[in-house]
Task: inverse folding
């Protein structure tokens, strides 16, 4: 996926799901593929399926749902989902939370997330990570980058 070999990734997911159609981790990862390919509504269906198969799912299932909601422009729902993991969010969750808050014009809250990210002392802007998100279409990546810039994220 991160090599932008979307067709090969889709083929590998289909093979894995043929061997084990109830593997919730593979199902959630396929949801990410669908979101990155520009099919967030389908991604949300796959996330739901994965969560139903694994009622005690790890937190990253919620993160996958939040990211797919951002991609579907359902920002308020994305904030709710991503907020469920906010005891100690990872860089990726902070990035999508910040972008979602910015799209809702909740800029003070978005800037707080930028500060929270900066406090981790990683030395890289969220934009560095956003530029490496494996969207199939540049419009998806640009939507994320524009959202982060709206929140005041600097290079």
Result:
């Amino acid at each position: 996926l991160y090599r932008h070999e979307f067709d090969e990734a889709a083929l590998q997911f289909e093979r894995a799901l043929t061997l084990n159609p109830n593997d919730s981790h593979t199902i959630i990862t396929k949801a990410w593929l669908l979101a990155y390919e520009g099919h967030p509504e389908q991604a949300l269906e796959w996330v739901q399926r994965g969560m139903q198969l694994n009622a005690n799912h790890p937190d990253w299932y919620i993160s996958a749902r939040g990211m797919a909601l951002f991609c579907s422009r359902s920002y308020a729902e994305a904030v709710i989902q991503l907020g469920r993991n906010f005891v100690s969010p990872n860089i990726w969750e902070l990035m999508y939370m910040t972008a979602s808050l910015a799209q809702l014009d909740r800029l003070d809250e978005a800037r707080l997330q930028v500060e929270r990210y900066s406090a981790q002392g990683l030395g890289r802007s969220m934009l560095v990570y956003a530029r490496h998100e494996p969207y199939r279409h540049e419009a998806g990546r640009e939507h994320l980058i524009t959202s982060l810039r709206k929140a005041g994220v600097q290079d």
Summary: The mean pLDDT is 93. The first helix runs from residue 6 to 19. The two ends are 25 Å apart (CA to CA). Residues 40 and 71 are 6 Å apart (CA to CA).
